[in-house]
Amino acid sequence: MPDRHHHDHHDAVSVDAARSWYVLARLVDYLGIALFLGGSGFVALLWPAGGGVRAARRVITTGWLLGVAGAIATVVLEGVWAGGGPIGWPLVATVLATDFGRVWLSIALLWLLGGVVLADLLQRKENAARSTAWRIGALAVGLGLLRAVGLTGHTSDAGAVLVELADLVHLLGMALWIGGLVVLLFGVLPRRRPDELARVIPRYSRLAMVSVAAVVAAGVVLAWHSLGSVDALLGTDYGRILLVKVGVLALVLAAAQASKAWVGRRLDFAVVLRGDVRTVRPFIYSVTAETVLVVFVLVAASVLVTASPGR
């Protein structure tokens, strides 16, 4: 008997470990989508010259690599979590035979198409970023990824058009906001080119405001759909994780508001002083803080994907 108890305990531990790794894999995939889609969006909409900047291309490439790794890891870990046995092709084949597996197979294929979009950007650089064909390709892959990833969350069984649309808007807003922040941090700000700062930062500021408003509005629809009552918000693990996510998001918005006020006061100053280091540095700190906090929002989102709204 003791042996059986020990075996059950071991199984519980391995399933818990698989769940933790699964949450991490989802986080990696979310980050990948944010950097790949948000970074591509930033370059296409706000800063086509960024196609010619190595740091900006590196952010988009990193996003693609994270997305591919996250998608593959998710399929394998779903099999382990579901108790499918040792990692190997039979386990993967078992997962791919399920609806969940088929959705993730389509996500992997979309990442493959994303690789074509990325290769074009790496090869043609700024010319690609300015071309309509590249923008349409990036948009098609991006929307496909967002829709497919939406099918793997709690809205997948909703069937309501409004909820599915809210999910798409929620993910798109997050991607444009986070990916944009990272390109701003690693691509635009280190160059400290006054004319570029004056042109790109206000544009991003507007895009971020619209994105955040969309994220919040869509988030309210999704939360109400998942929980349906204030009691569920306070009385379930899912509700409490959601509250943590909202709390961190509020912190991020406070940081963003502070940096926006700072931009209003100091950006003209930075341009006059030709991108002086001391003038740009506080803005870099603010954007860094915002980026770090946003990653915590993504962590909460990844945990929510595996939590049941009823518990």
Question: Would you mind describing this structure in some detail?
Answer:
By secondary structure, the protein is an all-alpha fold. It folds into two domains: 1-152; 154-311, Up-down Bundle (Four Helix Bundle (Hemerythrin (Met), subunit A)), CATH 1.20.120. 85% of the residues lie in helices and 0% in strands. It has helices at 2-46, 54-81, 89-96, 99-124, 126-130, 132-150, 161-188, 194-227, 230-235, 237-272, 277-306. Helix 1 (2-46) runs antiparallel to helix 6 (132-150) and helix 2 (54-81) packs across helix 3. The longest helix is centred in the first third of the chain and has 45 residues, at 2-46. The model is unreliable at 1-10 (pLDDT under 50).
Which key terms come to mind for this protein?
311 residues; mainly alpha; Four Helix Bundle (Hemerythrin (Met), subunit A); 2 domains; 0% strand
Topology (elements, then pairings):
Blueprint: H1 2-46, H2 54-81, H3 89-96, H4 99-124, H5 126-130, H6 132-150, H7 161-188, H8 194-227, H9 230-235, H10 237-272, H11 277-306
Please work out how many helical segments DSSP would assign: 11
Low-confidence stretches: 1-10
Biggest β-sheet, characterized?
A: none
* Count of the separate structural domains: 2
Which structural class do the helices and strands define?
mainly alpha
- In angstroms, what is the radius of gyration? 21 Å
Strand content: under 5%
Q: Tell me the overall shape.
A: globular
N-to-C span: 32 Å
User: What CATH architecture label of the largest domain applies?
Assistant: Up-down Bundle
The helix/strand order is HHHHHHHHHHH
User: Mean pLDDT, rounded to whole units?
Assistant: 79
Quantity of strands, as a count: 0
